[in-house]
Design brief:
The chain has about 90 residues and is mostly helical. The chain contains 4 helices and 4 strands; from the N terminus they run ββαααββα. The strands form 2 sheets. It has a two-stranded antiparallel sheet. The protein has a two-stranded antiparallel ribbon with strand order 3-4. The protein is globular and about 40 Å long. The N and C termini lie far apart (about 45 Å).
Length: about 90
């Protein structure tokens, strides 16, 4: 079922994001743009996300090599993708 008509986001898309480690509804909005235009789908999207997120085990933070700071796997993926997209070299 389509939840967000503005961005063509389905309940399956939301479930997949929750299953893949999307940690919060804010993260879901950033990732899928759900409930960021007209707002009519906000309640349904929020409920759908939390229903699926509650079924997922909590992800542990992964340490970033080199500085020992704890960062989630998603943040690391975004950082690596950014480095790849910009052609920058990976930090030592």
């Amino acid at each position: 079922m389509i939840v967000c008509i503005c961005h063509r986001v389905s309940d399956r898309d939301i479930a997949r994001a929750a299953h893949n480690g999307c940690a919060s509804f804010d993260d879901l909005q950033f990732e899928l743009s759900v409930a960021t235009s007209c707002g009519k789908c906000h309640d349904c999207a929020h409920e759908t996300f939390h229903r699926h997120a509650a079924q997922q085990p909590t992800a542990c933070a992964q340490p970033w090599p080199g500085n020992g700071a704890a960062m989630s796997g998603k943040v690391i993926q975004i950082a690596i993708q950014h480095l790849h997209d910009t052609g920058a070299s990976r930090p030592a």
